[in-house]
Write a structure and sequence with these properties.
The protein contains 7 helices and 7 strands, in the order βαβαβαβαβαβααβ. With about 250 residues, the chain is of the alpha/beta class. It has a single domain, classed as NAD(P)-binding Rossmann-like Domain (Rossmann fold, 3-Layer(aba) Sandwich), CATH 3.40.50.720. A 7-stranded parallel beta sheet has the order 3-2-1-4-5-6-7, with helices on both faces. The chain binds NADP nicotinamide-adenine-dinucleotide phosphate. NADP nicotinamide-adenine-dinucleotide phosphate binds next to α1 and β2.
C-alpha cells in the first residue's frame, strides 16, 4: 500500500528543487498534495508536470499575514491536514559586511517567522496524528563563510522543530527537522553571489562533503516521505541530516 495513502500534504516552495521532487514522491505514495510558490508562472509549470489533482497556491513564505490566508485557503479545500513540509527558504549568502537590515529581516521572515506563524495558523487543521517537517540545513552546524544569516535562520527553525515537537505532541502532531546538505538544485544559483564567488563557494562546499558529491533532490524527498509517513510514528523532535556526512564526519 502506498505510504501516504489518504494523507493531505502541504509543501511550501514546491515549484522547484527539493520541494518539487518531494511533491512528485508524495503523489506517487498516494497523498493529496498542495504546493506553494511566489511565482504564478512557476506554479503553473509545476502544475502541468504534477497533474491536475495538485492544489497550486500562490503565497510568499515571508508574508506573515499571508500565512493565515494560506491556512484559510487550505481549510476551504481540505477537511484536515496530515503533513506540512515547510520547505521554502531564502538561501542568500553574503559576507557579513554586506548585510543590511532589510535583507536580514526578509530572510528571517521567510525562513523563520513565516514558518512559525504558518504552523500556528494551521494548528486547527492539523490532524491527530499528523507530521510537520521543518527544513533546516547542515549550515546550522558548520561554520561556512558567508552563510551567517542563513545558518542562523536554519538553526532557529531547527530549534523550533524541537520545542514544538514537545508542545504539540499531546495533539498528535509529530514535528521533526530535515536538514539537507549541499544538494544539486537551482538554489545554488540563488545565493546572491557574483558568478566567480559562486564557483569558489561551490568548490568549497563540495570539498566538505565526505561522500564527495552533492546530494540529489530525490534523496531528500525520500527522507521527507519517511518523516511524513506512519513509518516514522516513533520519530519526534529529531533532526534527520541528509547531507553526505557534512555535519557529522
Ligand atoms: N540546495 C541545497 O544545497 C540546500 C542545502 C541545505 C538546505 N536547503 C534548503 O532546502 C529548501 C529547498 O531548497 P532547494 O534547494 O530545493 O531550492 P530551490 O530549487 O531554489 O527551490 C525553492 C522553492 O521555494 C520557493 N520559494 C522560495 N522563496 C519562497 C518564498 N518566500 N515563499 C514561497 N516560496 C518560496 C521557490 O519558488 P519561488 O522562488 O517561485 O517562490 C521554489 O519552489 C530550502 O529551505 C533550502 O534552504 C537547500
Amino acid at each position: 500500500m502506498p505510504r501516504l495513502q489518504d494523507k493531505y500534504a502541504l509543501i511550501t516552495g514546491g515549484t522547484s528543487g527539493i520541494g518539487l521532487e518531494t511533491a512528485r514522491q508524495f503523489l506517487a505514495e498516494g497523498a493529496t498534495v498542495a504546493i506553494t510558490g511566489r511565482s504564478q508562472t512557476a506554479l503553473s509549470a509545476a502544475g502541468r508536470e504534477l497533474g491536475d489533482s495538485v492544489l497550486l497556491l500562490q503565497s510568499d513564505a515571508g508574508d506573515i499575514a499571508g500565512q493565515r490566508t494560506l491556512a484559510q485557503r487550505i481549510a476551504q479545500q481540505w477537511p484536515r491536514l496530515d503533513v506540512l513540509y515547510v520547505n521554502a527558504g531564502d538561501v542568500t549568502h553574503r559576507p557579513l559586511q554586506e548585510w543590511d537590515e532589510s535583507a536580514y529581516d526578509r530572510l528571517m521572515d521567510i525562513n523563520l517567522k513565516g514558518p512559525f506563524f504558518l504552523v500556528q495558523s494551521l494548528l486547527p487543521l492539523l490532524a491527530n496524528p499528523s507530521s510537520v517537517i521543518l527544513c533546516g540545513s547542515v549550515s546550522a552546524h558548520i561554520g561556512l563563510p558567508q552563510s551567517s544569516a542563513y545558518a542562523a535562520s536554519k538553526a532557529g527553525l531547527l530549534s523550533l522543530a524541537r520545542t514544538l515537537s514537545g508542545e504539540l505532541l499531546a495533539r498528535g502532531i509529530r514535528v521533526n527537522g530535515l536538514s539537507p546538505g549541499p544538494t544539486e538544485t537551482a538554489a545554488l544559483g540563488k545565493l546572491g553571489l557574483p558568478p566567480e564567488e559562486q564557483d569558489a563557494l561551490r568548490d568549497q562546499i563540495r570539498k566538505r562533503v565526505p561522500l564527495g558529491r552533492l546530494g540529489r533532490p530525490w534523496e531528500l524527498a525520500k527522507a521527507a516521505v519517511f518523516l511524513a509517513s506512519d513509518e516514522a510514528s516513533f520519530v519526534v523532535g529529531a533532526e534527520l541530516q541528509v547531507d553526505g556526512g557534512v555535519g557529522r564526519l
